[in-house]
Each structure stands twice: as C-alpha cells, then as structure tokens.
Amino acid sequence: MSFKGFTKSLSRAPQQFKSKFNIGEHTKDAVYIDAERRFQELETETKKLHDESKKYFEAINNMLNHQIAFSRAMTEIYRPISGRMSDPSTMEIEGRPEGIRACEEYEAVVKDLQETLAPELEMIESRVIRPANELLDVIKVIRKAAVKREHKQLDYDRHRANLKKLQDKKEKTMKDEKAIYKAEGEVEQATQEFNYFNDLLKDELPKLFALEREFIQPLFQSFYYMQLNIFYTLHEKMQHCDIGYFDLTLDIEEAFHKKRGDIQEQAEKLSIVRFKTTGRPRPPRYGNKPALEAPKPQGLLTAGPSASSAAATSPATTATAAAARPGPLRSCCLTGRVRKPHQKWSDQPAGYALVRR
Prior knowledge:
By secondary structure, the chain is mainly α.
C-alpha cells in the first residue's frame, strides 16, 4: 500500500467504524445490495466449482498411481530374497510365483486404465478447470470495482456528515464559511465518484448474471458427463479384469478366509510373536557394580596410609593385620619408614607398630 492509500485508509477509519455499528446516516441502495448479494454467491460457487473439479482430477490420478504402487509393494512382499546381494548366484526366490504374477497382471491392468482415462482427465482440465479459473479472474476484477465503490461510499457519507456538522452551527465565523465552501466541493466530488461506480455496477452486474447462466451451466453438464464416462470406464475395465489368481465368484470375505487358510495359527506358534516385556528396568545381571569401573591407583611401597585410614585404624588392629600378612619388607604405620630384611624388630624405636607390606 502506498502512502497516499494509507492516509486515505486512516481518514476513512472513523466512518467505517460508524458504518459497521450503524451509527449515523449511511447511504443504502436496495438495487445494488441485491446485486452485490448475487455477485457474492456467484463468486463463492465459481470458486467451489474450480476447487472441487481440480480435487476430482487429482483424486483420479492419485488413485491410479496408488494402485500401481500398491501392486509393486505386494510384489515385493511375495518376492522375499535369500542369499547375499553381492553374489546373485546365491539368491533364491522363496515367494509365491502365482501371487507375483497376479500383482504384475493387476499393474498392467491399472496402467492400461490410466492410459484410457488420460484423455478424459485432460478434458476435465481443459473444459472445466481452466474455464472456471478464467471466470475467477474476471470476478476478481469486478470485485476490485465493488471494493472501490464501497470506499467511495464511505467518502461520500463522511463528507456529507462533515458538511452537515458545519451547516448546523448557529454562529458561523469566516473560518467556518471557508470550511463549508471546501466541504461542499468535497461532497460534490464524492457524489460524482460514488454515483459513477454505483451506476456502473448496477448496470453491468445483471448482464454478468445473464452471461453466468450461459457459462456455468455448460460447465456443470460437461463435468457430469465426464464423470459418468470415467466411472463407466472404471467399471468396465475392472468388471472384465481376468486374473486367474482371484476367484471373483466368491464373496469377498469368503474368498479372504479361503486364501488365508491356517496362516494365522502358524504365525501364532512362533515364539517371537509371544515375546512380552513388563517395561520395568531389570536388576543388574552381574551384581550391583557398574559395568565399567576405573581401576584404583596403586600406592607406592614407601608411601604411608592417608590421614583418614590412619585415624580409622587402631594400633592393635594394625599389629594384627601385620602379623597375618607375610612379606619381606615392613614399614611403620606412623612414619612410613621401611625395615629392611637384615634389620631386627628391636632396632625400631619403641611404640611403633610395624606392618608387613
């Protein structure tokens, strides 16, 4: 939006608010109101015709494409391959050849049906979707004229209200007289612009409605017969679908149970289908220790115990442990000094507890 359009929108905002809540005087043309209602219905129905015909066109194409993809997927299910992919000589087909053949025949039928329906679908696009789109383009241009007429009506009502407000003043100054003169000119210009768009739409819309009947009715008839031809072709092709794998004389449910046989009972005998889990965490299999544990650092032979271990160990306990452990070297638990093998116990100072390392 340009700056000029933005300023016009701001000037029309108060009058638009009054018109929305029916405050003050507003211009109402019954003939145009009826024509605008019919035009809105035409716009809605044309948009619906365009969208629905396009959806139908895409749905038929997608249905045929999905049927081809379905037959290929069923072929892969019927054709499991064993062996190494790098060695084609080890591959063995363990599937059902008759099922694979049926899928391939069905894919050929659908492809033939797709080629047969291609001209009909192209006709829907050229005779229904494209003309409806062209009519929508025409309606968009007319809608712009209707919006322009609505804006001119707001300006017309706004200038008339402003002029009436100035004229209703009891004591008018020279400034008020100038404002009245200016307002009269604005009202005259707004009246001319509003009458131009109002008369144009009232004169042209009935002609559009007459042309619309001649334009839309053939579209509906063409769309109806095109759908009829498509459904007839689908019915005839599928009615004469001669695939020996399927027994079309049986009921669909009866044929399903006959083909399935006892495969469900065989599948239920597999232990893997009875695998259950509680969903709760299991206890550790190898104790409460973590699976990965860092190794503890080994102390030096000449290093004494830490302060915490020295405080927790009594002299009697240390002496008992020393007597139970064999070893060539002995160290003092207080000083960490090591007694060599040729030294005697009496050589150490009194009161020291000796332990073997």
